Structures are given as C-alpha cells and as structure tokens.
C-alpha cells in the first residue's frame, strides 16, 4: 500500500484551492495506495486499500492527491452479491464508494508503480489516469502497499516488485527532493525483507511492515456469506485504530506500539528514520476532523479479527474448506472437495518442481534436499537471487498469477547463498520447466 501525505493540526490547516497545506503554510499531502493482487480469493487486499482511501478522504486529502492502483475486479465480480459494494469487516461500511480508479487491470504493474513514485508523467501518458506524484521538497508522502510477498519481493497481479528496485526508487525520490518526509505501511508475507538492510535511517523515510523478514502476514474476518477474507490483520489494526482516534493527537509511535501489541500473530516492525515516529499520524493521513468510529478495540480473547486470523498461506485452503462445510447438497460438496484435492496437487507440483530445479543445479539429492529445507534469513547475494527469481517466474510459474509459487522461493535464496549462480539456476529452470503456462495456483 502506498501513500504520500502533508497535513497540519486541525486548527492550523490552510487551504490553497483543493490542496491541504502544512502548518508552515507550505507543502502538500499526497498518497499512493496499491493492492497488488487479483481475484475474489484475494478480496481482502483491495478491501484494505479501499479502506485506506476512505481514511485519507475523510481526513481531507483531495482525490487529485491520492493515486490508487488496484485490479478492480472485486466490486462488480459475479461472486459479489452486492455489486459496487466492498467491505473490510463483516457488516462493515462500503469502502469502495468514491475510490479513484487511477490504474486498474493490466495497468497495475511494478513498472507503472515506480513511474508514479518518480513523477514520470511522460512515461504514463495514455496509461490509466496518468496521475503521478507531483510532490516536492516541502511535501509529505504516504505509501500503502498490500499483497502477497516473499523474501525481497512484493507481488503484483501478473508480476512482482524487487526490494532493491523499490529501495532505489525511494533513494532517487530523496535525491530529487520529491518529499519532505515519507511514511510507508507495507502488508505482505516477509514484508520486513523489503526494508531490511535496504532503507537508510537518514533520508526522512519511516516504514512499518506487517511482519519481519521471515514471517507470513495474516488474513482475518472470514465472511461466511461472501466466502472470502475481508481484511489483513496488520492493515485492519492500523486502520481501525485510525478510525477510532483523533489522529491530530496520536503519534506514529503510539500507533505502532498499539498495533504491534494487537497484531499478536506476526511481528510488526518499524524501519528507517524512527525519530519521525514522534510526529502525529495526521501529518501523513490528513488533519481534517472526521467522525470517530465506535468499533473496537476488543480484548484479545474476543477480538473478531484475531479470532478469525489465519496465515496468508492457508487462506485458499480455509476458503475452500468453508465452501465444503456450507455445501447445500452432495453435488456441491463433491465439487468443492475436488477443488481441495486440486489445490493440494497444484501446490505439490510447484514444490516438486522447485526440488527438481535445485537437484539440477546442485547435482546431488542430498544437497537439493538441504536447499529445500534450510532457512537463510537474509539475502546477501542479491544479483543471483534476482536473476534466479526472474528465471523461475519466466520459465516455471508466473509469480503474480500463481501466488503459491512465492512460498517456494526460500530454496532460491539458499542456492545463491551457497555460491550457485543465477545463470546456473536459469539453465536448470529452462531444462526442468517444459510445461505450458499456468495460472491460479494459490
């Protein structure tokens, strides 16, 4: 999820046209919000981003300063019993209403996202709304990213973003004086790996990740009527807190500690310039007074989000199991049982394919087995890792269209950290992966 923001305390907000100004009378608030997935099964990611838009909108950030990227295949999906309605919790409000459709469908790509960050309007001419960040040295920026992830990777519907490319874009924004300060909230599995050893602490950027560099993130709010999860735990916790609080009086630090405590299923982490955490959340989410929600907080034992939370890797299993349990007749139950069998067969195929690639690279069954089971916690041989991941994506399984394939990238890291090369991995991937292109392995 990405956003850029500039704001002032409510009593000191100045307006210039439709722009929200800082307390010093200069600088504007911008936001970039990205949901990187597609399909009904990943409903929660777009719901999270739509909710983030509502927060910014309600706190006075104008739409021309909010850039939204999402597939936009949920609100009017055939699976949606209420077309045009997206909710982020059971029986919750419609968070889809009014959301800008800046970049949707095939335009939701890591390349376009990086162009938005860099302010490359020429590069996006004729693409979507064409909106890009027009922020400058007095402006604040808020970036919110939500999707699947893997070590050093954030997913997009048909592709993915490398951590180093994201880091390079942030560094370029700093050099080009595109912001005064920037805050990034990132929701994905292994989300900490997008910042670990990559985000400096002296470039006025503060980031939160839903998990550390090795953990999954968690989904929650399984809806038995919509048959999908409506939110992600980290995103739900920071946004529901924001909905309840006067954010002109709540610091980023206070929100971090509250969210870190409430998200008891993964380790929420802070990165970059932690001195920025003393600032009020309104500096990055908007300072206009908004009606406060009375939903929550809840004691841990009775928290409706935490009670339904599940490792993101197991979301598809839980959804299909729910369909089986809710089946109205034998035919329906049999169909979903077959879907469950197919899901596990597909997952086994992906894992076995990676094992075969590792065997081809190492030439040893014992070594290949070790590569499949070892867990290096950080990437140090980035070039090898990036080349190898690209090869697996290109020759074996599209990582955007087959999210489960992200779960088997740990062996790629292990191979690189043990001295094997990207060229060796690519050669093995070409030899092993001779199957036709596939999608939908979740």
Structural commentary:
There is one protein chain. Helices cover 34% and strands 14% of the residues. It is α/β, with parallel strands linked by helices. The strands form 4 sheets. Strands 1, 4, 5, 6, 10, 11 and 14 form a 7-stranded mixed sheet that branches. Strands 7-8-9 form a 3-stranded antiparallel sheet. The chain is globular.
Distance between the termini: 21 Å
Structural class: alpha/beta
- Strand coverage percent: 5-15%
What percent of the residues sit in helical stretches (DSSP H or I)? 25-40%
Integer average pLDDT: 94
Short recap of the structure:
The chain has 442 residues and is of the alpha/beta class.
How would you summarize the topology of this molecule?
Elements (H helix, E strand, L loop, with lengths): L1 E2 L11 E2 L2 E2 L8 E7 L7 H16 L7 E4 L40 H9 L21 E7 L2 E2 L2 E3 L4 E3 H13 L5 E7 L17 E5 L8 E6 L4 E5 H12 L7 H11 L6 E4 L9 H4 L24 E2 L3 H12 L3 H33 L2 H9 L8 H14 L14 H8 L4 H11 L10
Parallel strand pairs: 4-5, 4-6, 6-10, 10-11
Antiparallel strand pairs: 1-6, 2-3, 7-8, 8-9, 11-14, 12-13, 12-15
Name the descriptors.
34% helix, single chain, disordered N terminus, 12 helices, 15 strands, alpha/beta, 7-stranded mixed sheet, 3-stranded antiparallel sheet, 442 residues
């Amino acid at each position: 999820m990405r956003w850029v923001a500039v704001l002032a305390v409510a009593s000191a907000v100045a307006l210039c046209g439709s722009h929200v100004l800082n307390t010093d009378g200069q600088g504007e608030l911008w936001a970039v919000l990205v949901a990187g997935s597609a399909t009904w099964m990943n409903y929660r990611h777009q719901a999270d981003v739509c909710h983030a838009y509502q927060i910014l909108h309600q706190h006075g950030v104008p739409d021309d300063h909010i850039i939204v990227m999402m597939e936009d295949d949920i609100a009017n999906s055939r699976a949606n019993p209420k077309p045009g309605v997206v909710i982020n919790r059971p029986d919750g409000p419609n968070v889809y209403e009014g959301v800008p459709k800046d970049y949707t469908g095939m335009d939701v790509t890591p390349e376009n996202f990086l162009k938005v960050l860099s302010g490359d309007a020429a590069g996006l001419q004729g693409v979507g709304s064409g909106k890009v960040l027009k922020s400058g040295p007095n402006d604040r920026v808020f970036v919110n990213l939500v999707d699947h992830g893997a070590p050093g990777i954030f997913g997009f519907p048909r592709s993915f973003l490398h951590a180093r490319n994201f880091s390079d874009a942030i560094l370029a924004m700093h050099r080009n004086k595109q912001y005064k300060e920037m805050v990034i909230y990132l929701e994905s599995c292994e989300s900490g790996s997008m910042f670990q050893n990559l985000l400096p602490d002296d470039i006025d950027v503060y980031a939160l990740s839903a998990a550390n560099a090795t953990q999954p993130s968690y989904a929650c709010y399984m809806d038995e009527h919509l048959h999908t999860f409506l939110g992600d735990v980290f995103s739900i916790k920071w946004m529901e807190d924001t909905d309840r609080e006067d954010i002109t009086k709540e610091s980023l630090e206070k929100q971090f500690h509250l969210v870190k405590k409430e998200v008891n299923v993964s380790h929420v982490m802070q990165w970059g310039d932690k001195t920025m955490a003393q600032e009020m959340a309104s500096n990055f989410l908007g300072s206009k007074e908004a009606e406060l929600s009375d939903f929550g907080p809840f004691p841990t034992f009775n928290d409706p989000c935490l009670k339904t939370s599940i490792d993101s890797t197991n979301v598809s299993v839980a959804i299909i199991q729910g369909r089986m349990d809710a089946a109205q007749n034998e035919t329906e139950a049999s169909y979903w049982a077959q879907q469950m069998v197919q899901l596990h067969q597909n997952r086994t195929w992906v894992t076995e394919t990676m094992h075969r690639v590792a065997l081809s690279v190492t030439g040893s069954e014992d070594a290949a087995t070790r590569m499949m089971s070892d867990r290096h916690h950080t990437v140090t041989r980035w070039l090898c890792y990036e080349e190898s991941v690209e090869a697996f994506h290109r020759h074996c399984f599209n990582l955007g269209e087959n999210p489960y394939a992200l779960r088997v990238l740990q062996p790629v890291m292990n191979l690189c950290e043990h001295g094997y090369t990207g060229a060796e991995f690519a050669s093995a991937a070409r030899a092993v992966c001779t199957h036709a292109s596939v999608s939908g392995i979740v």
